[in-house]
Prior knowledge:
GTPase activation; Regulator of G-protein Signalling 4, domain 2; GTPase activator activity; cell membrane; mainly alpha; RGS_subdomain_2; 0% strand; RGS; 10 helices
Amino acid sequence: MSADLQDxxxxxxxxxxxxxxxxxxxxxxxxxxxxSDIRRRGMYRKLFCCFCRAPKPPIDEVVSWRQSLxxxxxxxxxxxxxxxxxxxxxxxxxxxxxxxxxxxxxITTSNEIAIAAKRIYTEFVQVDAPRQINIDCGxxxxxxxxxxxxxxxxxxxxQRLIYKLMKKDCYxxxxxxxxxQVLLEPSEAS
Length: 190
């Protein structure tokens, strides 16, 4: 193996290790590297998309996410990037709730509906839920009342509220975020 190739592989490995540390994919004993150190070393932007464990999406796809939140959510990579952004803002529960509701609407049997409704309710809706979403008490009470006989539409109002919150608040900030800006950059291979 040539020295240049070995140096390039060493740098690539170092970049991946640092990014994985940032996203806590490796043991915490390595987490002494700070985000500012990553930026200073010029490595932060190089392989940022490793958070989604997928190749960097084509730039035209990334640009299309500017059209609307709906367009962003139609892309699996877009969902992952937006989720990562929400995680940095401590509001990941919004996208997780929205996705859970989308999946919930596809259920066909009443037994599965009851089980999934209970899971969504306990994870996102009930007071002091582990990932409690920010909805008004009236909507929360309506959902609570519907848990004895859940329907496929019992989370619709809350899902609309969360979507509106993401669209008006989180989505515009995502478009200005470093996560999105890095994905807009041409890859070094191009």
